[in-house]
Hints:
Blueprint: E1 7-9, E2 25-29, E3 35-41, E4 47-54, H1 62-75, E5 86-91, E6 100-105, E7 108-113, H2 122-132, E8 137-142, H3 144-152, E9 160-162, E10 170-174, E11 177-181, H4 196-205, E12 210-214, H5 220-227, E13 232-237, H6 240-252, H7 257-261, E14 263-268, H8 271-280, E15 285-290, H9 302-317, E16 320-330, H10 337-350, E17 354-361, E18 378-385
Amino acid sequence: MRKEHPWLYAESIRSQSRAGAPGDLAVIFDRHRKLLALGLYDPDSPIRIRILHRGGPRAIDREFFAERLREAAALRAGLEREGTTAWRLVNGESDGLPGLVVDRYERSCVLKLYTAAWQPHLAELCAALESVLAPERVVLRLARAIAGACAERGLVDGTVLAGPPLDEPVAYRELGLRLRCDPARGQKTGAFLDQRENRARVAARARGKSVLDAFCYTGGFSLHAARGGATRVLSLDASAIALDEARANFAANRDVPEVARCAHALAHGDAFRELALLAEAGRRFDLVVLDPPALARRKDDLPQALQAYARLAELGARLVERGGELVAASCSARVDVDALAQSLHRGAARAGRSLREEERTAHALDHPVRFPEGAYLKCLFTRVEGNP
């Protein structure tokens, strides 16, 4: 077990006293029988044990979970003062609760499990959450890899574990803007909370500009650009449902003068195809945002993902006015920021353009990273040079 790393892989276990079931508490000793750590056991995952506690004996119970939740909440205490009522309360391993994400939307909390080892501990975890936050509602989400196994044990993705049923989208605020999401059926836990700070950076760059938001989902970058003073915004996504939500989010903020003045349009279709069609039609924008979904979920996906980022940069660069800006993000942990940058520069060069990097950003305060594999988000803000 690597020092301070939160995972113990199956091949690193020299021996074990018995076969374990998902969620069993694993007690880890070194070769000299010294107690090293306690963790959650998952026989169905190559990450066989996820470390909860290091050092001497410790009860893993409701109070243990409540202590971790209180520590996580204290780290994020200042966010509400910014006009934000939705954030990541627990970022898995980096907040000491490996394989678990807790996102908060006003008084609704969403628990997302990335290992079935959490299933036997859900009651204690929910009780701890009630004692720390007293949420109105708790919704369960399951990672795709474990949804089938959990369903066999009676857990279904989107289940409301506590509180009233979800009859309508959940409303929340992000830096003063009103948004809404569907925690039971939306992507991730309903919204992409990790891009909040990058959306604010786009808003700060948007005044007087035309903006294209590709892979817009429910229009987060689009809405912030409008609030920042963009004259027109085009929101592009392959999901008609997501675009309906983007339209609704704009409507909910029409009392914001900048949003009301912004000409907002929607485009439905595959981003790669639609970006090419926009370029063929001679469309140009002052600022283009490219925020695709994870393109490298497995190690074998990496070469193809880097080619896809280059292609996106090529398509995006063709749409940017001279001296305009291209903002590109990756949420693939397997893609490091230098590899992403190289792909973007290579793609822009194929379009006859060059990129001048102005800023690289990573994780926001509520998405802390305390181990290498946890660093998934990176975003590059670039200036596009050369004639379109």
